[in-house]
Specification:
The complex is a heterodimer of chains A (422) and B (219). Chain A has 13 helices and 7 strands. Chain A has 422 residues and is an alpha+beta fold. Chain A has a 5-stranded mixed sheet with strand order 3-4-5-7-6, with helices on one face. In chain A, strands 1-2 form a two-stranded antiparallel ribbon. In chain A, a hairpin with a 2-residue loop joins strand 1 and strand 2. Chain A is elongated and about 125 Å long. Chain B is of the alpha/beta class and 219 residues long. In chain B, 56% of the residues lie in helices and 14% in strands. Chain B has 11 helices and 6 strands. In chain B, helix 5 links the parallel strand 5 and strand 6. Chain B is globular and about 50 Å long. The chains are: A alpha+beta (422), B alpha/beta (219). At the A-B interface, helix 8 and helix 9 of A face helix 1 of B.
């Protein structure tokens, strides 16, 4: 019966312990070396911070500060992602507050700065030790195979110590190699934990405040999502009421008129019936348009690049689409990207006076980057009630970002990124 | 009867004009927005205006505002408001001005030509035409009212038809009863609701609608 097998599998025998330890040691080595990578980046960020501090004394540091803080956050996020892969997930803090003074006062930013210094020195050092241990082990264990080929000055164990001149010496170097292996198995997991410790402590959310902020931010974006949803529903409601419903009312009015005409003058009734039929056909066409605007069938049937190409073809301004999106994103994300492009192209057609437009879509890691640009007169402003507000709301509802560059005289570039959600 | 139509949807506007002209009614102007409509009211001196609630620019309640303004400029103007759906607040706004020469109908009623023409004539003749749906909603929402609860089912039917603006003869015809029976029901209703009895249809409608509106607020 299964219970028998289950009991055996649940209690690994003694023979399983050695491979398990070896595996744990290898994993820990991998973590140490991975930590060496972020340690190197952290060291660079630390140097950049130090340079900024020196430049501040010279009075020009404020120019460097945003980039330094940005670098710190980027490295910290990388480490969070790395640590989250083999331990409890580390949730990142909210966006740092706008304004340098506020950013410098932000607790999360300060903790990240402390981590960057610690990890850039000690983390990197531990990573280097982790990386050299297996090299030393290999060097020493295999020493008897080649020691006679070495010039006397280099004929030593990996760490030096003494010059090997005879076989017992060479074999004792092998013994040192075995000790290295033992050290790897016994110490490396602890080293990896030590290396990760500052990150786990300093990059985790500040107890209390950080999570509250993050929850507030998430609540706000959820509310924005619901808002965007409500706006979308209102749009659909209006399209149905003012378009389709009016057509169908017209159909009933014309049918009523036709019935009255039948009793008086059947020839007249036919003309009225024909208009009723036209109205019914228009109602169908409008209904199709409304349905298409909810989730374009081209998006449902084909791919995002195809859907965007179709959009560009409908745009009165000549528009090139360069979309390279391997795989598919979540349907809501694709629909949002579609509407961002649709809205942007309709803005371009209505307001820009552009002669040329372009759409570039890329998927980098798990984010979808959408860029729409035109050579029109620029000066696009979110505040004057264009479709940009709608684009921003829909984008932020998906935790996306929006950047708009539109100097007077043009050109205009709109960049939107969306998490792919898959 | 000189009629002005204010409706932003071209097809519906033309359909309405075609229907009314086929009935030998005099459609003197059609308008697609509130300004054109008010200009037509000034220029053509119509007897009746048929006005869509949703009109440009915002497509919310421009029609109601325009109708109220048209009535201010021309108090003897009869107004029949058409709406895509029942918006109680709009109906109440309109009725706040008194219910004489006033109608509020769902658009789809236009297809029932006899009833629509009946409502149109009623409004033009100084009466009231309230959509059955509006009345039904008022009645549903005033349900907890104790005095309404004392009405018999038949009396409730009569009350609803009164609220729509129908006269005694029309109510008798709808319910297939005699004029005398309708008269008796109406007396009972006024007694049970503590309303001052009146024979004038417009006052009666106003009284009943006010009662229902009050009951809804209390509910």
């Amino acid at each position: 019966m299964a219970t028998h097998d289950g009991a055996a599998a649940g209690r690994p025998g003694r023979s399983g312990a050695v491979p398990a330890r070896a595996r744990a040691a290898l994993d820990a080595l991998e973590h140490l070396i991975g930590g060496m990578g972020t340690g190197l980046l952290a060291l660079l960020a630390t140097l950049w911070l130090a340079l900024t501090a020196v430049a501040c004394l010279a009075g020009v540091g404020l120019l460097l500060l945003p980039s330094a803080l940005h670098a710190v956050r980027a490295v910290a996020d990388r480490e969070r992602a790395r640590l989250s892969r083999w331990g409890p997930e580390l949730i990142g803090p909210a966006e740092p507050p706008a304004g340098l003074r506020a950013a410098l006062a932000d607790r999360a930013v300060r903790r990240e700065a402390r981590w960057v210094c610690t990890h850039g020195i000690f983390g990197l050092l531990l990573g280097l030790i982790g990386a050299t241990l297996p090299l030393n082990a290999a060097h020493d264990i295999t020493f008897p195979l080649y020691w006679r080929l070495l010039p006397e000055s280099e004929s030593t164990a990996a760490l030096g110590w003494w010059t090997v001149r005879d076989w017992p010496g060479a074999l004792s170097v092998t013994l040192i190699g075995v000790l290295f292996v033992a050290a790897i198995v016994l110490c490396v997991p602890a080293l990896a934990r030590l290396q990760a410790w500052p990150g786990r402590r300093l990059l985790s959310p500040d107890p209390g405040t950080d999570l509250v902020l993050r929850v507030a931010e998430l609540t706000a974006t959820r509310a924005a999502a619901l808002d965007a949803h409500a706006t979308e529903l209102r749009r659909v409601e209006r399209a149905l009421h003012d378009g389709t419903q009016n057509r169908i009312v017209a159909v009933t009015v014309l049918l009523g008129a036709a019935r009255r005409a039948l009793t008086r003058n059947p020839a007249e009734a036919d003309a009225v019936l024909e208009r009723a039929q036209e109205a019914a056909e228009q109602a169908l066409a409008e209904l199709r348009a409304v349905v298409r605007s909810i989730l374009p069938p081209v998006l449902a049937d084909r791919s995002l690049p195809d859907a965007l190409t179709a959009l560009a073809a409908d745009c009165p301004v000549p528009c090139r689409v360069d979309a390279d999106v391997p795989g598919r994103c979540a349907a809501s994300v694709e629909a949002t990207a579609y509407f961002v492009v649709a809205e942007a192209l309709s803005n371009i057609a209505k307001h820009s006076g552009a002669r040329d437009a372009g759409v570039v879509v890329r998927r980098l890691d798990d984010r979808l980057h959408v860029e729409i640009h035109d050579d029109g007169r620029g000066g696009a402003d979110e505040r004057n009630g264009s479709g940009l507000t709608g684009i921003r709301r829909r984008t932020e509802a998906h935790d996306g970002t929006l950047e708009l560059a539109s100097p007077p005289g043009g050109p205009t570039t709109l960049k939107v990124t969306l998490p792919c959600g898959s | 009867m000189r009629i002005v139509i204010a409706e932003d949807d071209a097809l519906l506007r033309e359909g309405l004009a075609l229907l009314l002209r086929a009935e030998s009614l005099d459609v003197v102007a059609t308008a697609e927005d509130p300004d054109t409509f008010l200009a037509a009211v000034d220029a053509e001196k119509p007897d009746v205006a048929i006005v869509d609630v949703r009109m440009p620019p915002t497509h919310t309640d421009e029609g109601i505002t325009a109708a109220v303004e048209a009535r201010r400029r021309r108090p003897e103007l009869a107004v029949l408001v058409l709406s895509a759906y029942v918006e109680q607040a709009f109906a109440t706004d309109l009725l706040a001005q008194g219910s004489a020469r006033l109608g509020y109908l769902l658009k789809e009623r236009v297809g029932r030509v006899e009833e629509f023409l009946d409502a149109l004539h009623r409004v033009a003749d100084g009466g009231t035409a309230i959509d059955p749906e509006v009345v039904a909603q008022l009645l549903t929402r005033s349900r907890p009212d104790a005095r309404l609860g004392r009405l018999s089912p038949r009396e409730r039917d009569v009350l609803a038809l009164m609220a729509e603006g129908l006269g005694n003869a029309a109510i008798a015809e709808r319910l297939v009863v005699t004029d005398g029976a309708v008269h008796k029901h109406i007396r009972n209703i006024f007694a049970k609701l503590d309303l001052a009895p009146t024979d004038r249809t417009d006052r009666r409608v106003a009284a009943v609608l006010h009662y229902l509106e009050d009951a809804r607020r209390r509910a």
